[in-house]
Amino acid sequence: MSIDDTNLDPAANGALPLESVIPATDRNSIKNEQRRELFTTPSFLIGLVIALFWLACAIVPGVFTKWKENDFVRTSDGASIPRQGPQAEAWFGTDSIGRDVFSRVIYGADNVLINSPLAALLAVLAGAVLGLIMGYYRGWVDEILSRVLEAVLSLPVILLALMVVAVFGDSRLVLILTIAGLFTPVVARTVRAAVLAEAQLDYVTSAKLRGEPSLFIMLREIFPNISNILVVEFTVRVGYAIFTVATLAFLGFSAGDATVADWGKDISESYNLIQAGQWWPSVFPALAIASLVIAINLIADSVDKVYSS
Predict the structure, then answer these.
(1) How far is CA 88 from its chain centroid?
(2) Is the residue at 29 inside a domain?
(3) According to the 3-state scheme, what is the secondary structure of 63-74?
(4) Which of 9, 72, 112, 268 is the most buried (most CB within 10 A)?
(5) What whole-number distance in Å separates Cα of residue 58 and Cα of residue 55?
(6) C-alpha triplet 121, 212, 214: angle, nearest 5°
(7) 194-246 pLDDT per residue, tens
């Protein structure tokens, strides 16, 4: 037969996106295969185990330590033992007033693992909305929003965060919204670039010709095709948010009572003792931050590799 096979394939002619001509069962099979590949990736599993450990510490800290965050390690006669190095009774030693460093590291996971994911989630949601609007409408809408986002990005992250919390306070809500606002422009630019590429494809043009409203096209046509980018952005932003939360706490801005365990705050209170040989009160919280950030990065790299392949 002389019929051109490409005329029988709407995807080959650009009439429809390839995903729309793949049966739903096949698309589900592809997604299941991606999930299986992800959960067999060693770096992802290592990162997931570490992250889940710290998450468990944040949820049920009492399972991992017999001490409370403000309990003093005492001798048999009831006297506290400050500034003691790692020992059997206190695995990570005691701080300058005799509190158990190990228990403070365990309890300190709470602040980071609540504020950071929430801030990253809000940043991704807000960035996705802005990116969709900028990439889809383009023109003056894109120009105005791009200039505003570039102005925000031109300012140092920590300096801007300090200005906000100094004015509005360092409550948990203010910290989360501040960090989310700082990361929103970065996410918006990434989403904008993805939407610009998708908006040029024929399936979007076809939807416009059918008279579909813009909101429908953005949410039902374009958004599903960039969802993988948002997953990667979320995992990456969580890592950056952890650093930002810890840095603000180090500088004295952390939600909660002054005696509440916090990795950044505990480092700030004891890092000047390192020169005196008392390294454990600051080194162990720093290692906790590093391990969590590394775990998140391992997860982010694995997700990016699997879903972009």
Answers:
(1) 36
(2) yes
(3) HCCCCCCCCECE
(4) 112
(5) 5
(6) 40
(7) 998 888 888 888 888 888 888 888 888 888 888 888 988 999 999 999 999 99
Q: Is 3 within the bounds of a domain?
A: no
Q: What is the DSSP string of 230-275?
A: HHHHHHHHHHHHHHHHHHHHHTT--SS-TTS--HHHHHHHHGGGGG
- 129: tokens are 């909305």
Q: What is the pLDDT of residues 244-259, one digit of tens each?
A: 999 999 988 877 677 7
6 in a domain, yes or no? no
* 26-50 mean pLDDT: 82
The structure's pTM equals 0.83
DSSP secondary structure letter of residue 212: -
The closest alpha carbon to 216, from 138, 131, 136, 122, belongs to: 136
Residue 8 has pLDDT above 50, yes or no: no
The verdict on residue 38 lying in a domain is yes
DSSP 8-state class, residue 8? G
* CATH number of residue 182's parent domain: 1.10.3720.10
Closest CA to 189 of 243, 123, 140: 123
Domain that holds residue 222: 18-61+108-308
How far CA 213 is from CA of 61, 227, 257, in Å, comes to 50, 20, 50
Three-state DSSP at 21 gives: helix
